[in-house]
Write a structure and sequence with these properties.
Elements: E1 4-8, H1 18-27, E2 32-35, H2 39-48, E3 55-60, H3 62-72, E4 78-83, H4 89-93, H5 100-109, E5 112-120, E6 123-125, E7 128-132, H6 133-141, H7 148-161, E8 165-169, E9 178-180, E10 182-186, E11 208-213, H8 221-230, E12 239-244, E13 246-251, E14 255-258, E15 261-264, E16 269-281
Parallel strand pairs: 1-2, 1-3, 3-4, 4-16
Antiparallel strand pairs: 5-6, 5-16, 7-10, 7-14, 8-9, 8-13, 10-11, 11-12, 13-16, 14-15
Helix pairs in contact: 2-3, 6-7
Length: 282
């Protein structure tokens, strides 16, 4: 078995990590485990064990996974996941489940593949990030106890008061300037909870899917929601897609989320794909 360390975010899954920890210690008596209290603590732990660990397992949601993955980019280290978030978009897309036996079998085999990651004004992203309405929803959602029901409630409350933002692209060949409710930058297909904002996104094509969504009328909302969860969103009068390996634009919003974590990002914004920059267990 490859040398493995487990990094646990104790705040994920509302702090109910003890059953996972107990099960892990029963199966691996000498498991190397780090209970991380901060992103900086995670960084230091990975750096300290760079010479004696091959696989770093992240226990948590997309934000936790992203903070671990950031430290492994462009290295020979391998990322593995035990999903414990409210959406688990990235783990859904990379075939990780809440089955500890299955995870340990993957670790035993030690196979991996290389996937793309993203940089947004120097900030790292592995799944789906977004600006505008999407960022404002996450900002408000972080004030709740989380969970899918609270996410839907927060989304609806924010929608009625949120005004579209201006996005202007610097590439003269792109004619997507306009007022948009939100802009999503997708490395994978889904936010989480099987909500597919970019059904054609791929982690191995060297491209990000840019999703531009105009504010739509109430009659369109059920149609949008059905297509979102059915994985059938496509371009129409309210949705536009751009595929790009690199993109620069300006916007009137600073509200962003990066893999589900609220972040304030100042315009202009530079998006760049890092092709096949991360090894992930398979």
């Amino acid at each position: 078995m490859r040398r493995t360390a487990f990094i646990i975010n104790p705040r994920s899954a509302r702090g109910s990590y003890q059953p996972f920890l107990n099960a892990l210690q029963r199966k691996l008596h000498d498991a190397l485990i780090h209970i991380s209290e901060s992103v900086e603590g995670t960084r230091k732990f990975i750096k300290e064990h760079d010479d004696n660990v091959d696989i770093f397992v992240a226990y948590g949601g997309d934000g936790t996974i992203s903070s671990v993955a950031k430290q492994l980019v462009n290295s020979d280290k391998i990322l593995a996941i035990f999903p414990a978030g409210s959406g688990n978009g990235f783990s859904n897309e990379t075939n990780f489940t809440k089955n500890i036996g299955e995870l340990l079998d993957k670790i035993q085999r030690g196979n991996f593949r290389e996937i793309d990651t993203l940089m947004i004004n120097g900030h790292f992203s592995i799944n789906v990030s977004g600006a505008g309405f999407d960022g404002a929803v996450v900002k408000n959602f972080e004030k709740t106890s989380r969970g899918f029901r609270n996410y839907i409630k927060t989304s609806l409350q924010t929608y009625f008061s949120y005004q579209p933002e201006t996005f202007r692209f610097s590439d003269e060949h792109v004619v997507h300037d306009g007022e948009y409710l939100m802009m999503n930058v997708a490395n994978t297909r889904q936010f989480g909870n099987n909500a597919y904002i970019a059904p054609h996104a791929s982690t191995v094509d060297g491209l990000a899917e840019i999703v531009l969504v105009r504010k739509f009328p109430l009659w369109y909302a059920p149609y949008f929601a059905w297509r979102l969860f059915a994985g059938k969103l496509r371009e129409d009068q309210y949705i536009r897609y751009i595929s790009a390996g690199e993109l620069v634009f300006t916007t009137t919003t600073r509200d962003w989320h990066l893999d589900g974590e609220y972040t304030n990002i100042t315009s202009p914004v530079h998006i760049k794909v890092l092709p096949r920059s991360l090894r992930i267990l398979q």
